[in-house]
């Protein structure tokens, strides 16, 4: 297949630049190499008593400890899942079903990922009450709004750690403290933040936290839910006693091993990657805002993920920007990958108070550690040209 990230080269170059790491990442070669033996050599079932099974069981034990150590947790607090969406479902439904006799009130935010919002809609349909707290024009939840929403029937608060579209980082530590003052459990979807900033369970104070391997250069189809010791929740699948009896089914050992390796690499690279990506991010933002009239940054200017650039442009459509950049060999997105095929305007940008006709001109650029400053320059130069061309064709754009 060749290099998936070829550099810009020559006058007759073929360019392939991937800047959609918020959607997924390429598995690191070390991750792939760690997984391979568990497909064709160490393929035992971790529940089997023979040597093949015990080899798999040992890999499971080791991987669980690696993920736990990275999060500042204990191994028995890690439940492996198929990814962020299943982790979110397990957290919300597992608590809702268990505590339905205590209360049926859940608090979340208006800008959550569809894995949370659609789960909350399902719970609302079957008799639970959901309160959606607002955000300000930079995408921040006010902890005071969360506290005001708490009632005697509140059983769970779920606020994402960092938004998947605009990258705004939420005050989870403060929200956790408020929740616990009222005897309420806290869950956070940290799928976008893990691997891009320090994430420690004792520091955040949450009771549950969702992560996904394929956002941190690991394989797709595997993730985990951290569940603080002493926190009870019901499993959603019945069967064997796998994953602390919370997730029945034979464990995906190759995927779990790959996730553990990705976590190990993320820990090693975290400080260096963060500084590197912040420099790329800030350069792109500065160049776009300085070079393209009526361009705007979405989300908080400083409390944002190190790799997230979310901008919007007046008088253009984000889908047109995406397709024309793709023709130049550049992969970006117009929002969340999970809703990118929807024609509905972004619920996140709407929550920021952006009017509908301005929402559609948005672009999400999410960087990875293989991106370079040369690629940044190439993307910005082409973006300047593309915006000019689209505005020239627009019947509503002012003409010079």
Which tags fit this structure?
seven-stranded mixed β-sheet, Aspartate Aminotransferase, domain 2, 400 residues, 12 strands, disordered N terminus, Aspartate Aminotransferase, domain 1, 2 domains, 14 helices, three-stranded antiparallel β-sheet, alpha/beta
Q: What report would you give on this structure?
A:
With 400 residues, this protein is an alpha/beta fold. The protein is 41% helix and 13% strand. The strands form 3 sheets. The protein has a 7-stranded mixed beta sheet with strand order 2-8-7-6-5-3-4, sandwiched between helices. A 3-stranded antiparallel beta sheet has the order 9-10-12. It has a two-stranded parallel sheet with strand order 1-11. It folds into 2 domains: 17-27 and 269-393, Aspartate Aminotransferase, domain 1; 29-265, 3-Layer(aba) Sandwich (Aspartate Aminotransferase, domain 2), CATH 3.40.640.10. It contains 14 helices and 12 strands.
Give a quick summary of the entry:
The chain is of the alpha/beta class. It has helices spanning 29-35, 37-40, 51-71, 84-98, 114-125, 143-149, 172-181, 201-204, 242-245, 253-291, 318-327, 347-351, 356-359, 373-393; strands at residues 17-18, 78-81, 105-109, 129-133, 154-158, 185-189, 208-212, 223-227, 295-297, 308-313, 330-331, 362-366.
């Amino acid at each position: 297949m060749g290099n998936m990230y070829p550099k810009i080269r020559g006058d007759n170059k073929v360019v392939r630049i991937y800047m959609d790491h918020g959607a997924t990442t390429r598995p690191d070669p070390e991750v792939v190499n760690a997984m391979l033996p568990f497909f064709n050599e160490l393929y035992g079932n971790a529940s089997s008593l023979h040597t093949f099974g015990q080899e798999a069981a040992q890999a499971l034990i080791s991987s669980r400890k690696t993920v736990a150590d990275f999060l500042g947790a204990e191994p028995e607090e890690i439940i492996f899942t198929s990814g962020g969406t299943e982790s979110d479902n397990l957290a919300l439904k597992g608590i809702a079903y268990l505590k339905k006799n205590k209360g049926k009130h859940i608090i979340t935010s208006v800008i959550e990922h569809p894995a949370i919002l659609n789960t909350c809609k399902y719970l609302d349909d079957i008799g639970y009450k959901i309160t959606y707290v607002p955000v300000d024009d930079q995408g921040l939840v006010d902890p005071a709004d969360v506290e005001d929403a708490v009632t005697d029937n509140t059983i769970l608060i779920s606020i994402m750690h960092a938004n998947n579209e605009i990258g705004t980082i939420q005050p989870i530590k403060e929200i956790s403290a408020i929740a616990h003052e009222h005897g309420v459990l806290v869950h956070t979807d940290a799928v976008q933040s893990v691997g891009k900033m320090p994430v420690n369970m004792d520091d955040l104070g949450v009771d549950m936290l969702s992560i996904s391997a394929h956002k941190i250069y690991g394989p797709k189809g595997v993730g985990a839910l951290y569940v603080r010791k002493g926190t009870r929740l019901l499993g959603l699948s019945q069967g064997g006693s796998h994953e602390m009896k919370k997730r029945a089914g034979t464990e995906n050992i190759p995927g779990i091993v790959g996730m553990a390796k990705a976590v190990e690499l993320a820990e090693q690279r975290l400080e260096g990657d963060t500084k590197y990506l912040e420099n790329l991010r800030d350069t792109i933002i500065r160049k776009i805002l300085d070079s393209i009239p009526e361009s705007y940054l979405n989300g908080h200017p400083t409390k944002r993920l190190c790799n997230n650039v979310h901008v919007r442009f007046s008088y253009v459509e984000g889908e047109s920007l995406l397709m024309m950049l793709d023709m130049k060999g550049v992969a970006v997105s117009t929002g969340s990958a999970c809703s990118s095929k929807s024609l509905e305007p972004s619920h996140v940008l709407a929550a920021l108070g952006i009017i509908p006709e301005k929402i559609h001109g948005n672009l999400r650029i999410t960087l990875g550690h293989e991106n370079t400053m040369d690629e940044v320059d190439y993307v910005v130069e082409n973006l300047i040209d593309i915006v000019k061309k689209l505005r020239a064709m627009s019947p509503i754009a002012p003409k010079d």
